[in-house]
Amino acid sequence: MKSPEQQKRSYNVAVIVDKVKANQIGKPHYQRSNDAWSEDQQSKLIDSILRGYIDIPKFFAKSEPMGIGEKFIIIDGLQRINSLVKFKRGEITLPKNAAPFVYNNESQNLRGKTYEELEPEIRAKFNDYMLDFSFVSNLTEEQESEMFRLLQNGTPLKASEKRQAIVSKMSSFMNEIIDHETFFNSSFMTSKNQKRYQHLNMASVLMYLWFKGPAHVNDKNITKMYDEQKTVFHSDGVDATQFKKVLREMAIIFDSLSKKRLKKAMVLPLFLLVKKLVQDKFVLNDEVRAQIRSWYNNFLINKEKALDNSLLQEDEHDKKLFKNEEFQKKMRQFELMSINGTNAKPSIEERFEILWDDMLVTVNPVQKDTKRRFTDSQKFLIWIKNEGKCQVCGVSCEIDDFHPDHVVSHANGGLTNLPNARVTCPPCNLKKGSKNADQNDEDEREDEAQTALV
Length: 454
Prior knowledge:
The protein is an alpha/beta fold and about 450 residues long. It has helices spanning about 15-20, 40-50, 80-90, 120-130, 140-150, 160-165, 170-180, 200-210, 220-230, 240-255, 265-280, 285-305, 315-325, 325-340, 345-360, 375-385, 425-430; strands at about 5-10, 25, 60-65, 70-75, 100-105, 105-110, 130-135, 405, 420-425. Helix 7 (about 170-180) packs across helix 8 (about 200-210).
């Protein structure tokens, strides 16, 4: 393996801004979002450049081929480059409390001015300012991400950002799901352009709860999980697949809710609730999802009434609610834990248990039969029962060429027994997918189709 090498180059601000416009500057996956710096930090950087107060620290980058030219991948310095670009675009101004600026022995007031409002000579000074780059080569991905962590001398990295600088399959998986999973585009989640890896942090917290169940959530424990999973986690493994399934179910069930109705403190216990439904193989179809959505809305309404009796109505439901001291006590405890110690294990665990028990009062989810495939003896009896004829199209099937089919699909809670079984020819069974027998729907659901032949 070749030893790491460095090559020094210098470019003025104008060249770097033009390269950004031409999409010739990029960032590695572990870099922060482009708005990690505050507007105040960006403004002060521009002000210092114009006054000549500082030499901007060296930029570290690597070069990648791009057409007939090259693309700069910024290992360290992206926030500074972003500040230069935003100032030139007019998106930020100089500090509003800036001291008078002396140029050509004349004092000028630059407070709050944009790039276009500057005198041509001052704009030229900004554009001509030289930036020093060190281009590194022959680095492994681990060495590159380690360099990123060591070079941080501006805004300190948060724990979630440090985890993303660790090269691992889990880090790559986390980046993938926040880009592609609908959960992170749901109405109750914030914009993808938020600061400092908040989506990645939420994904890490939920993954930690996936592995540990109700547990104390902090940076130390989550980083330990990354370390434990560094070599064993697989993006196509059972844990990753089931984790994505839980996120998708949450997106489907709760997407219509606003951020006010599904605050961050509620996401963790609700994740555990949906996780239990998925892991314990409860039926999750449109009807059940609608029931859960309705239950949750009613839970929030009843909780608000329990906390503020002035909201109670003069109906039978609210009269019972008012008299139910145990329920009111439980709601007060739930609210208290949602405000204080939201990431502590006892708080997460008790809130989950309150939600689960309350849901079961109005929602009656059905667990799927633990046995999905029919036995050989059952297959024979099913063929005899239906005289070897497909119960969908009527065609005769040979005993060694039919699909034993659930009348009520296994996905919808149908049992794997003789009363819930029938003969279908392979084409009809594959068309049915996970739909019940009385639904004339030819949508294919590959993961639910019975394809085992006698």
